[in-house]
Amino acid sequence: MANKIDINTVDQIAHLARLEFDENSKPGIIKDMNRMLDFVDKLNELNTEQVEPLIYMTRESNVLRADEIQHSISQKEALKNAAKKDSDYFKAPKVIEQK
């Protein structure tokens, strides 16, 4: 393994991730992070020479339908059942306030 995690590394990672740890929890975090690095090193021992890179998690592909032109409703029909409208548009309550 290239590097072991120490208290300075934990402090740097905590700063970058905007996390705060008390001094009592740092030894446990160091231990857990070193175990993670050991696990990754163990994976590096595997021979992956004949293994193709994984691009997708499944072998399924998208099944797309052909585009078909369909009759759509007119503007007048669309506005027919609107709760609030003016002559051409739907009316909705204001959701953005200016300050």
SSE layout:
Blueprint: H1 7-16, H2 26-44, H3 75-79
Largest sheet: none
Average of pLDDT? 87
Number of helices: 3
**Beta strand count:** 0
Helix coverage percent of residues? 25-40%
Beta fraction of the residues? Answer: under 5%
Distance between the amino and carboxyl termini: 55 Å
What structural class do helix, strand and pairing data support? mainly alpha
User: How large is the radius of gyration?
Assistant: 29 Å
Shape call: flat
> Element order, helices and strands?
HHH
Walk me through this protein's architecture.
The relative contact order is 0.08. This protein starts with 6 loop residues before the first helix and ends in a 20-residue tail after the last helix. The chain has a domain of 38 residues. It has 99 residues and is mainly alpha-helical. The longest helix has 19 residues. Helix content is 34%, strand content 0%. The chain is built from three helices and no strands.
